Amino acid sequence: xxxxxxxxxxxxxxxxxxxxxxxxxxxxxxxxxxxxxxxxxxxxxxxxxxxxxxxxxxxxxxxxxxxxxxxxxxxxxxxxxxxxxxxxxxxxxxxxxxxxxxxxxxxxxxxxxxxxxxxxxxxxxxxxxxxxxxxxxxxxxxxxxxxxxxxxxxxxxxxxxxxxxxxxxxxxxxxxxxxxxxxxxxxxxxxxxxxxxxxxxxxxxxxxxx
Length: 210
Fold this sequence. Notes:
Blueprint: E1 3-8, H1 15-26, E2 30-32, H2 34-46, H3 54-62, H4 66-70, H5 77-86, H6 90-107, E3 113-118, H7 121-125, E4 131-136, H8 139-152, H9 159-175, E5 188-191, H10 197-209
Parallel strand pairs: 1-3, 1-4, 2-3, 4-5
């Protein structure tokens, strides 16, 4: 039986980096669920689709490919804003929830673990998961991490702009009516404000193997 490792947390807390490291260590398939919303958001931006055009948005959600989900163009302030807005749309969440729940069946057969990372994995997508991790970090630390990431990918922004966007995203995620961001009751809480990736990984590795 494949065990689901559910990793949740807000923007720029290090979820994707930790998830990738866990995936590589255990040879486990990995799905970064936030990339699903970002991929749809990028399509909306590139094709200049109205954010309330339900039919078009669902069309893009149904046509997601592995290449789109892995694109490095998914990380920009513009994509951040659109992804945040569409993530509250019930019809889109329902469509992408189906994709996420099918992922272990399609890609993790015969594997001990599968890693699913996002904002409501342990509470909504896979509430039955036995291994649940909820990550957190100081807002200023997260803003600096996102700023460095965007600059590395050639984007133009300011640290203040990133900080303001993360604060707004946190408020939206924490207070939305549909699947608000919160730790699952039986999750392990990991504050990465002052932890490097190796320290975070070693902490989680002990939890997984116990």
